[in-house]
Amino acid sequence: MxxxxxxxxDEVDFSRKDLRDGELTRCTFVRCRFIGTSLEEMTTAxxxxxxxxxxxxxxxxxxxxxxxxxxxxxxDANLFVSKFTxxxxxxxxFTKARLDGITIHKGDWSYTNLRSADLTKQDLRGIRLxxxxxxxxxxxxxxxRNAELTxxxxxxxxxxxxxxxxxxxxxxDFRSFSVEGARMDSTQAADFMRAYGAKVD
Length: 201
Prior knowledge:
The protein is mainly beta. It folds into two domains: 1-106, Pectate Lyase C-like; 109-195, 3 Solenoid (Pectate Lyase C-like). Helices cover 5% and strands 15% of the residues. Strands 1-3-5-7-9-10 form a six-stranded parallel beta sheet, with no helix packed on it. The chain has a four-stranded parallel beta sheet with strand order 2-4-6-8, with no helix packed on it. The mean pLDDT is 95.
């Protein structure tokens, strides 16, 4: 086990290293590489990762609290049963990442690429997903109450059984996906009807 506190790393290559069970507190990583790195069960608190590459990294059972992963790459990364609490993930790319069992508690996931992500039954209450790309994602039975979904892309996403009540849905194209079985409040229902040309008084 290792601990880093208040450390700064710029353009350091940690690829394929064994960094399991570590504790990072208030550390900053700028354009660092973690390609294929073992990061299982590591924890971060108030850390910042900027434009870092986590391609094929193993983040299984890792825990992150109030950390920021800005414009990071998580292609093919394994995030099985990882937990992100009040984290800022803006602009990060999760193409083909394994998200089974992930826990997301609030936080800002705006502008992220979550295309085809499996977020079935996820508790996403209060999360920010402004302009996030959820094309083809599975959000069946997900709880999106009070989430900020302004201009979020849901093309061909699955939302059967999802709860959207109280969520901000300005700019969402309701014609690009099916809302069959999803729960909406009256304001959202009116937005849905307007998307299909209805006049709602």
